[in-house]
Amino acid sequence: MINSRNTMSIKELIICYFSGTGNSRRVSRWVEEYAFPLKGNVLNMENITKSGLLSLKPDSVFGIVFPTHGFTAPWKVLKFVFGLPVGKGIIAFVIATRGSLAFGSFLLPGFAGSACFLISLILILKGYKIEGFRGVDMPSNWISLHPGLSKAGAEKILAKSHSQVRNFTGEILAFRYRILTISRLFEFIFALLLLPVSVLYLVIGHFLLAKLLYANYSCNGCGLCAENCPVNAIKMYGKRNPRPYWTFKCESCMRCLNYCPKKAVEASYPFAVAAGYIGSSAMLSILFYKTELKALWLSTIDNPLIYSAVKWIYFVLIFFLVYIVFYYLFRIPFINRILSIINPIHYYRRYNEPDTKLSDFRKDNIQS
Ligand SMILES: Cc1cc2nc3c(=O)[nH]c(=O)nc-3n(C[C@H](O)[C@H](O)[C@H](O)COP(=O)(O)O)c2cc1C
Ligand code: SF4
Ligand code: SF4
User: Fold this and answer.
1) Does the predicted TM-score (pTM) go above 0.85?
2) Does 20 contact ligand 3 (Cβ within 6 A)?
3) 98 Cα–ligand 1 center, Å
4) 165 in ligand 3 pocket by Cβ < 6 Å?
5) CATH topology of domain 207-347
6) Beta-carbon neighbour count of residue 18 at 10 Å?
């Protein structure tokens, strides 16, 4: 329970979250819980198609909670925040959940990079008053990169972040959160250093990650993944034997991968390795040297700008060519089985926030 005279002027707490596997939803619920007796309203931003329609009053406190992707905020969140109505001084706070890992009793923190800074900056430019922002460590859900955490590991991280969120909520609502600290300065410097990675992730990385996803031979075509994708990125194709197909809209939130009842969604390492190998600049130079194009290649290397443009264009072309080949290979049951069995992700433990069911995301929806 918050105890501050300033809190008396706040009438309502509105939190909009985006969440792939429930971590950011859980953090939003914790804030709501600790803001008591202030009336809380936790909304899932995935179905608020026009964030400008959101009704925020001058005596509201507005929070945005979302996962860190590629050391920054996902596109979905950026678009949502850009579309918000003008703030007119409304008090706001930002939380980026980040992926922490547990090795015995050692907890490796995640890093939110520019996520909080960027969203706070956009909110300030829109006229909101940022009262505070922070990254909160939650069990990492990036299952296309590493196996899901054990129950014990996840519980340790959740217990720690629970108390972090309690302190943060108390300080925000009592207007005594300190934004300018030495650790925040270091965070900002690292965020700047990692900015090129974040830009690459937003511009190209997450599109490529989306194309790694496929359904293995255990898929029964139930369509649950398509129904529950927060950005409608999955299409079911085939009348007699429907199969999911991942489009570029995918935000790589990991929901389909972690909630599929058959554990059938995988990110294909064999495809990533094949595309990476054939699309590498070493392969490109072999290609040029083995053909009549050797002289053209040498002149390209002389100019670093043309060289990197050629390299990227080649990589993207190869990526899509290999993708088409793999797409058809995955449709052959025997080959799908082989490609899946040799894929490390096939054996990874999945993760979703322990108390979050798929139906919970729908419960927080509002009509817009
Ligand atoms: C594609 C992708 C990229 C990620 N990038 C980062 C990152 O840069 N830094 C970090 O600390 N965690 C990263 N994570 C981990 C998530 O931010 C973290 O697990 C988050 O709590 C997930 O929240 P959600 O369940 O609400 O989606 C990433 C996860 C995914 C799926
Ligand atoms: S991938 Fe999983 S959730 Fe999607 S259709 Fe197949 S079995 Fe159902
Ligand atoms: S396709 Fe899967 S990973 Fe991509 S946004 Fe939808 S649920 Fe998330």
Assistant:
1) yes
2) yes
3) 5
4) no
5) Alpha-Beta Plaits (3.30.70)
6) 24
